[in-house]
Amino acid sequence: MTDPNVADRIKRDVTDNDVVLFMKGTPVFPQCGFSAAVVQVLTHLGVKFKGIDVLADPSLRQGIKEFSSWPTIPQLYVKGEFVGGCDIIREMYESGELGELLSTRGVATTQAA
Amino acid sequence: MAMDAGTIERLIRDTLPDARVSIEDLRGDGDHYAAHVVSSAFKGKTRVQQHQMVYQALQGRMGNELHALALQTSVPDDA
Q1: Which of A83, B6, B52, B74 has the fewest CB atoms lying closer than 10 Å?
Q2: Where residue B45 sits, what CATH number does that domain have?
Q3: What is the per-residue pLDDT across B6-21, written as a single tens digit (0 to 9) for each?
Q4: Which residue in B48, B63, B64 is closest to A84 by CB distance?
Q5: How far apart are CA B63 and CA B78, in angstroms?
């Protein structure tokens, strides 16, 4: 069971920030190839995002998996909605869907969708 | 810890009987796989939901015994 405080914290993080990436390591020093891949996609699109390092907090690392019913990290949230993990983000980036989703939700990117 | 491709395929088929599953052992180490799963059960579901169905079929192994499974899901053309 997730600690209710952890669930609350996650909900606040994904509500207060347009784009949130739960990842291993930080955007500057990712500690996992899958997290690094998503950081790279977001950087490439020029999206401002908040990176949250789950390695810094074991209860968060477990809690985020239960929050989204998703067993792996990284996890990307846009405007409070879980969009996907590494495979989905990569697929959506390559097809242009990610750029579209961001602009539909009113998130600024430096690259045209 | 490793898991063989046959077990992954069997677990997926137990839950999604019509699934076409192709699995590639990316490094030959039994620990890094890429799977493509095609099933009519995915129809009308979002990608996140489709992947969640596969993860459910793997009964908690994903993220534990199974470290890396790059997943791609799709609906058959005739569904």
Answers
A1: B6
A2: 3.30.300.90
A3: 999 999 999 999 999 9
A4: B48
A5: 33
